[in-house]
Write a structure and sequence with these properties.
98 residues; two-stranded antiparallel ribbon; flat
């Protein structure tokens, strides 16, 4: 069973404000969610032999290398960018550390 302190910690991690009035509601909803997900423990996940014969998945990666020489497009980008300082492109700050 979830406690109100656990719900407060989860809300802080998710960066959402939960008022004291909503705290009890979220605690009971959290318990319902955990009970629902807990149904996964009842599943029989033993594999039959047909599933074991499949080849393992793998990533196909390209070789490392330069697709073009460094700086080939720098001037074209810098000319089109509205705010810049030398060759550095200046963008609006979207993250804050509040």
């Amino acid at each position: 069973m979830a406690t109100t302190e656990e719900v407060k910690k989860l809300a802080a991690l998710a960066r959402i404000r939960v008022g004291n009035a909503e705290l009890e509601k979220f605690t009971s909803e959290f318990d319902a969610i955990l009970a629902y997900v807990g149904q996964l423990e009842d599943l029989d996940l033993s594999q039959d032999d047909s599933l074991r014969d499949k080849p393992a998945l793998r990533n196909v990666m390209r070789e490392d290398g330069s697709p073009h020489e460094a700086g080939a497009y720098t001037e074209k980008i810098v000319v089109q960018f509205p705010a810049r300082a030398g060759d550095a492109l200046s963008v609006k700050q979207i993250l804050s550390h509040d």
